[in-house]
Please model this.
Amino acid sequence: MTFTKDGHIVPARWVPTLYFAEGLPFYAVGLMALIFYQRVGVSNEVIALTTSLLGLPWSLKPLWSPFLEMYKSRKFFVVCFEFLGGLSLALLALCLPLPGYFRYSIALFSVAGFCSSSHDIVADGLYIASLSSKQQAAFAGWQGGFYNVARFFAQGGLIILAGFLEARMPVVRAWMIIFGGVGLILVLLAFYHVRVLPPGSEVRSAQSLRQVASTYWDVVVRFFRKPNIYLLLVFIFLYRAGEGQLVKIGPLFLKSARLDHGLGLTTAQFGTIYGTLGTAAFIAGTVLGGYFTSWLGLKRAIIPLIVIMNLPNAAYVYLSAAMPGNYAAISAALGIEMFGYGFGFVGVILLMMQEIAPGKYQAAHYAFANSLMNLGLIIPGAASGYIAKWLGYQKFFVWVLISAIPALVMARFIPIGQAERRNNDEAPPVADQSETRIHTNASR
Model:
């Protein structure tokens, strides 16, 4: 192996695998669970509710993140969470043939979600602590790149493989192989990271539980004293209200049989569209959305971003009305929708970075805002199954378009460009060891 001057293995050996391990369980819990439950006959309303609630660990992780800074090393926690997350998914695979599989699988998905969200915290902390500023910049692209490799692998490769296996064996056995394989990959990555990861430890600013609690309370108080914070949080919550519903019901509509007013895509077809073309369109949208916002400025770009994010959701209205059997037409419609989603998603991220994060605890406050933003996905998503059952697919997708209107109206009134005028006592220090950087996860 190649080593750096300080005796650690070069980052190119561990940064890609670290962020692949960060993304893989997120997509296993976020989308693969949804498709599995649909394939074994669980109702749409139960799927939407339970899989939405499985996203809670990513919203609540700031509650326990300070305590992961107190003990052992970041490497220790990275390896532990990878191993435990992989073990939980392997156990989940074994419980699928059991009569009470649903309750067991929900419990084990919850464990995997807790391990994955906690892994986000320590993995990002290890990256920051182990690399110089120059190295952090050099490997920033590797972070997002291999996180999206995990997305392609899970939403594309593994779901396509699941479709291939479903054609040759019972559905439950096919998904046992899929979830067991994901668990095995995470366990193997844990063993690999025992060898290659740097320790990721440094002198901590808080050495006791009391000091951590005191700092944490100061972080919370300063967060809710920020100018216009409640207005901004309401806007962030509403920004993704339509998406939070679509992300749960859209895949179920695509997979439902035509007799049930769905498009009847096979698992392999779904994986090809959603995991490959859809992911590529999303990435292209985020890149162009970033350039668009940089060119126009967030204040002037925010309304176009909301429109571009939500208007392509009309693709689902078209699909549910026309019910095309043409695979190319379905792929094109979903590609447009995912491009628009990626394009508009940039707006809410920049809003949190520029209007909420600035201050003494910049990274921690961004993490708080990001976690509260995710509630804007979880709460609408939890109710979406019942709304879709009541309205039917076509009217539901019209409702999703209507759900974007409150954010569009608020966009005319929210204060943007206030951060530079805040008091100097909230200016961020050169280095603040109490901050916790949280990786932002895309929802699809």
Observations:
- The chain has 17 helices and no strands.
- Residues 218-414 form a domain with the Growth Hormone; Chain: A; fold (CATH 1.20.1250.20).
- Residues 423-440 have pLDDT under 50 and may be disordered.
